[in-house]
Design brief:
With 335 residues, the chain is mainly beta. 14% of the residues lie in helices and 46% in strands. A hairpin with a 4-residue loop joins strand 2 and strand 3.
């Protein structure tokens, strides 16, 4: 995903006003609006959590030209939304989402003909919506979405302003939006954990012929950003050293084997995490091969979320669990 944490966004698109009835005081409906096209534009700000939830504040302005020479209908509003972004196992950059929100707006017809201009009414609003997002980078996400919004007032309540005799029924609209969101956090790699000793303490001085290094060892864990299987700069530097050591050991132990195991945190389904751990193991394997490690020595394993090394209930623990582990061993040397 393109980052967790705070973001700001811009949105714009088309707006279709649904059925609206306009009344005069004590009379039957005199004007009827339906499927009138206009436009909408707004700004958003919110916070993306690792579990896919995305609370958001939205300020948006909708405007439509009314039929029958009535004028225009403007509807500025402020909404508190909650969206849920799904993760697709095969396309990690694509995220369908669904959600809704509540807020307040001001129904503000700018009326013409015999009706007085600049009338208004404040209303409670609620909306539902869905769409699909695409991560262009770790910081920038594009979005195509749909919103259905409606006011909570059913009765023909009087407007304030210049035309107190005018009444209007429920405001409703469908809005198609294209938006861009910029994440300020991004998917930064977790702070590197100081590497544990990779080999046991050197034994007492041995005869000169006992100069081989111990092939049975575990290397520093390779950590990944959330929902990612690509290597960070730090991870590549760590694997460069691992590959150098493995190639040296391979010259000393012809039967040397390399095990690469992929792991995830517990966010997401078991099936998705299993596939993600496999991609992480393969990424490490391919990088080692590019540094000269014989592919026939490397064996990959995928454990999904089943083997955590830290609690998944904290962000720090989940960062440690998003990893690949590299081990080497030789049958000619017992542990």
């Amino acid at each position: 995903m393109a980052g967790t944490g705070p973001y700001l966004g811009l949105e714009a698109g088309g707006n279709w006003v649904g059925p609206e009835l306009y009344y005069n005081q004590g009379a039957a409906p005199t004007k009827f609006q339906k499927d009138v096209f206009g436009w909408a534009a707004g700004v958003t700000g919110g916070y993306k959590f690792e579990n896919g939830l995305r609370p958001e504040i939205e300020l948006i302005f909708r405007t439509n030209a009314l039929r029958n020479g009535l004028g225009r209908s403007n509807a500025p509003s402020g909404m508190a939304n909650l969206w849920y972004d799904f993760s697709l196992p095969m396309v990690s950059k694509l995220h369908p989402y669904i959600g809704g929100g509540v807020g307040f707006g001001r129904i503000n017809p700018i009326l013409s003909s015999t009706l007085s201009p600049n009338s208004y009414r404040s209303v409670f609003l609620y909306q539902g919506g869905a769409g699909v997002s695409y991560d262009f980078t770790d910081h920038l996400t594009g979005d195509i979405g749909w919103r259905w919004i409606q006011s909570g007032m059913k009765s023909a309540t009087a407007f304030g302003g210049g035309n107190t005799d005018l009444r209007v029924g429920r405001y409703r609209a469908n809005t198609a939006l294209v938006s861009l969101r910029y994440f300020f956090g991004g998917n930064s790699a977790p702070a590197p954990v100081p590497p544990a000793p990779v080999a046991e303490a050197a034994p007492a001085p041995a005869p000169a012929q006992q100069t081989k290094e111990d092939p049975n060892r575990k290397y520093e864990n390779i950590n990944f950003a959330f929902d990612k299987s690509d290597l960070t700069t730090y991870a590549k530097a760590s694997l460069d050293g691992d590959a150098q050591t493995i190639n040296t050991l391979a010259g000393q132990y012809p039967d040397l084997q390399v095990d690469v195991a992929g792991h995830t945190d517990w966010i997401g389904t078991s099936a998705y995490n299993q596939a993600l751990s496999e991609r992480r193991a393969n990424t490490v394997r391919e990088y080692l091969e590019s540094k000269g490690v014989d592919s026939s020595r490397i064996h990959t394993f995928a454990y999904g979320e089943t083997r955590p090394i830290a609690p998944n209930t904290t962000a720090e623990g989940r960062a440690q669990n998003r990893r690949s582990e590299v081990r080497t061993h030789s049958a000619s040397v017992t542990k």
